[in-house]
Amino acid sequence: MVSRRAALTATGIGLVGVAATAAVSAATADPEPAAAPAFDGAVPFFGEHQAGIVTPAQDRLHFAAFDVITKDRAKLVEMLREWTAAAARMTQGRDAGTLGAVGGQPEAPPDDTGEALGLPPSGLTLTIGFGRSLFRDAAGVDRFGIADRLPAALEALPHFPGDALRPEISDGDLCVQACANDPQVAVHAIRNLARIGFGVVSIRYSQLGFGRTSSTSRTQTTPRNLMGFKDGTRNMKLEDAELLREQLWARAEDGAAWMAGGSYLVTRRIRMTVETWDRTSLTEQEAIFGRDKGEGAPLGKAKEFDEPDFDAKGADGQPMIAKEAHIRLAHPDFNNGAHLLRRGYNFVDGTDGLGRLDAGLFFMAYQRDPRKQFVPVQRSLARADVLNEYIRHVSSGLWACPAGVTGDGDHWGRALFS
Fold first, then answer.
1. Rg of the chain in Å (alpha carbons)
2. Which sequence spans correspond to the domains of the chain?
3. Which of 9-18, 224-233, 318-327, 348-357 has the lowest mean pLDDT?
4. Helices 183-196 and 73-90 meet at what angle, rounded to 10?
5. Which residue from 24, 98, 110, 167 lies 20 to 30 Å from 387 (Cα-Cα)?
6. Average of pLDDT values for 117-144?
């Protein structure tokens, strides 16, 4: 096992290998590849786009939303510089600070918390987003002189039928998504950013996740959600270059030049009433999703990646895929061609005290414009999806995730605050 304090000589080779594998897979591989061992290497931090969006989805998540508690713009910008430097180090398997967990003065607190000592990078990616409230507070006050840079696409999400949102675990000024193939590596990253930000930010809420619920590359198999169904079969993937250009990456002409090359993230904590679901017949479960549970094929088809036939009728003359089926309501054909790049995670956070698991999906989806993508899709689902009988949306967030950091002279938020 490689120490996090040692530079990985194969770091550059590791990602080139991943990229090459993805390119070959797109051209030659079966749509359902064999499961690959977890990637323990380092994902490059610098680049045109932030890592952690089209990066092949890792197995673990630690997501955190932060409130900015200072009124000093200079302190916030300096923290973002420090966060960027720490993120660049941690994603390469190094300590958060230059002195490390044990290299400083014994009389002073270490500049790394130390719980990831000896662990490899584990594919760690750190992705930052800015919430609407960072630009203006609830009273409309320009908090940091950036209100005129509020993107139109960062419009507050509407209330959807069935929402049971808890304000204390919704929204926030900043978010950081830490994804890795080792939960301790992801937790270590968020913990150290919170430590560095002491006095400038405080954690509003955080969410641990396991078992990715989407594939973001054709090199990955389709995973299953806690309802036992394959999830995200038709997800956008990193090999879909033209689709990503049209549906994922923001452009300067969209109205916020500082967001060019970035993307908008919607987060939703979706509680599942798994006990009720577990008492539902297999036939009904499959009708609700519009797919069979074993293979994941659209009803009436044989394979997971077969195109669904929404006009096909069963022996009773009714649509093979019901009009209220999840697959139909979420399909681009019924949402003006809208696609999402999903990279959500399962969660189980103990019990609710009434003998039921507090379990579900921490939904995360990236897109070019939520007003044209997530909002119409969710309206369709909230209005008619039979799955709503088994789920509750209890948390919500919308974030502007800027383009990637180009090098050592750049930092998170530079284009926004310059």
1. 22
2. 58-140+165-212, 214-418
3. 9-18
4. 150
5. 167
6. 96
Locate all alpha helices (DSSP H) within 224-325, ordered by sequence: 241-247, 274-277, 282-289
DSSP character at residue 7: P
Contact (Cβ atoms closer than 8 angstroms) between residue 94 and residue 14: no
- Residue 206: per-residue pLDDT: 98
Element (H, E) at 415: helix 414-417
The more confidently predicted of residues 31 and 218 is 218
Token readout for 12 is: 């550059």
Which one-letter amino acid corresponds to residue 317?
G
- Each residue of 398-411: pLDDT tens digit? 999 999 999 999 99
Beta strands per DSSP E along 22-68: 60-68
**Cα separations in angstroms, 126 against 182, 207, 256, 277, 412:** 14, 15, 23, 34, 11
Quick check: 77 pLDDT over 50?
yes
Give the C-alpha separation, 311 to 124, whole Å. 44
CATH number of the structural domain 58-140+165-212:
3.30.70.100
